[in-house]
From TrEMBL:
Belongs to the small heat shock protein (HSP20) family. The keyword 4Fe-4S does not apply. Keywords: Stress response. Residues 37-153 form the SHSP domain. It comes from the Bacteria. SUPFAM superfamilies: HSP20-like chaperones (SSF49764). The keyword Acetylation does not apply. It comes from Bifidobacterium boum. This is Hsp20-family heat shock chaperone.
């Protein structure tokens, strides 16, 4: 185990937890991170398609009910969030849980859709674990160049 950082390594404790004493803790932490990554990796995968008239968004949200999902527009940003509670009890009336991998918690994605987008412009539907959003293209505002007078000193 190295007690001092390598000359080119900027982390003082980079090798500290490589000691065999910490192996059980490290393995348990790695397993938890891998499980969380696997669970969250399949949530909210998103496809965005541009059409002649607007945009179509398909977002995977498996295991959520329609009532668990919230779509909000604020200051030009569209946020899709979902929350699912699941009992954290180790036992229920039918037995003891040995392993629980299904996701429980909150997830969200945010997209910039433009300051002129209105709530009434966005249509949302949910079917077979996929949230579908349709929104129109926003017309680009022509920027009018205005002359600005510059004061001359003296």
């Amino acid at each position: 185990m190295a007690m001092f950082p390598a000359l080119m390594n900027d982390t003082m404790f980079s090798d500290l937890f490589d000691d065999p004493f910490f192996a059980g803790w490290r393995d348990a932490a790695d397993e938890g991170r891998q499980l969380a990554a696997a669970q969250s990796g399949s949530l909210m995968n998103t496809d965005v398609r541009e059409t002649d008239h607007g945009y179509e968004v398909a977002m995977d949200m498996p295991g959520f009910n329609k009532d668990d999902i919230n779509v909000e527009l604020k200051d030009g940003y569209l946020t899709v969030s979902a929350h699912r509670n699941d009992s954290k009890e180790d036992k229920d009336k039918e037995g003891k849980w040995l392993r629980r991998e299904r996701y429980a918690g909150t997830c969200s994605r945010t997209f910039y859709v433009g300051d002129d987008m209105k709530e009434s412009d966005i249509h949302a539907s949910y079917k077979d674990g996929t949230l579908h959003l349709q929104m129109p293209k926003q017309e680009a505002k022509a920027q009018v160049e205005q002359a600005h007078r510059i004061a001359i000193e003296g």
